[in-house]
Amino acid sequence: MIRIGPAGSGGLGNLAGIEAVARMGLDCMEVEFTYGVRMKPEDAPAVGEMARRHHIVLSVHAPYYINLASEEPAKLSASRTRILDSCQRAHAMGARNVVFHAGFYQGRTAHETYARIRDAVNALQDRIAANRWNVVLCPETTGKPSQFGSLEELFQLTADTGCGMTVDFAHLFARHQGKLDWNHLLLQLPGMFHAHFSGIEYGPKGEKRHIRTTETFFRPLAEALVAKNPDITLISESPQPLKDAAMMKQVVQQLWDAVR
Ligand SMILES: [Zn+2]
Asked: What is the CA(113)–ligand 1 centre distance, in A?
């Protein structure tokens, strides 16, 4: 099952956003806590109720400013709080997948950075279990080789901690300078995962910025997805998340119709 929907509500707010997503025939929506977890805990259940009524699958993107590899106790603690607050709201909304960018190397070796992030993820999962929150931590593949989050690092992290993962196809495309075979990539991925996609500008150092998603850029990935049919929620992270999610949904639908 390939569920497709936008990152955020396109400025409509979560409740109206879910209604718009449903009206457009889309399947899921990522609630964005980009600059902080500003949703009040008491407001979360109504968002979850609206999503259930319209059969929209919710996920949550934790704030961008997170560094689980930080050596500064205050920064590490703030990062943990941002993720746990995101998890609490996610649980209250019935959202399962909680996305975040795990951290930075900042001059440390990849090995040391990995160990710090692994230990932090394990500690977070202990807190999630103690709170009985029905959520899955889904660290994301990042778009720059200088940032923690290659596919290999995330495979290792899922194996060592049992966490989930977010495969950002556009980030991987940028990391690999556009030399990426979607079919080959999908063969390496599990049967179920959370995913992001958008158009992307990149240079020698990887990702520069997310741009509008063209049909031409999406189609090869869509073909590979329809051929393998993994169980995914695919979030459109372009500057026009709803419009481009609708285009992606249409492309996938056309491909399904063609094989039926
Ligand atoms: Zn992403």
From this structure: 21
User: 5 to each of 18, 54, 115, 156, 184, how far by Cα in Å?
Assistant: 10, 13, 34, 28, 24
How many angstroms does the Cα of residue 45 sit away from the middle of ligand 1? 25
pLDDT tens-digit map of 15-69: 999 999 999 999 999 999 999 999 999 999 999 999 999 999 999 999 999 999 9
Instruction: List, as ranges, residues with CB under 5 A of the ion ligand 1.
Output: 168, 196, 237
pLDDT one-digit tens code per residue, 176-186: 999 999 999 99
Domains recognised in the chain with CATH numbers: 2-259 (3.20.20.150)
In this predicted structure, the answer to whether residue 260 has a pLDDT above a threshold of 80 is: no
- For ligand 1, the distance from its centroid to the CA atom of residue 117, given in whole angstroms, is 19
Q: How far is the centre of ligand 1, averaged over its atoms, from the C-alpha of 211 (Å)?
A: 12
**Residue 171 CA to ligand 1 centre (angstroms):** 7
φ, ψ of residue 194 in degrees (nearest 5): -100, 145
Q: For residue 72, how far is its CA from the centre of ligand 1 (angstroms)? A: 26
The secondary structure of 147-193 as a DSSP string is BS--HHHHHHHHHHH----EEEHHHHHHHTTT---HHHHHHHS-SEE
Six token digits for residue 55: 């059969």
pTM of the predicted model as reported, rounded to 2 decimal places: 0.96
Question: Which two tokens mark 241?
Answer: 């998340």
Closest to 43 in 3D by CA, of 100, 88, 97: 88
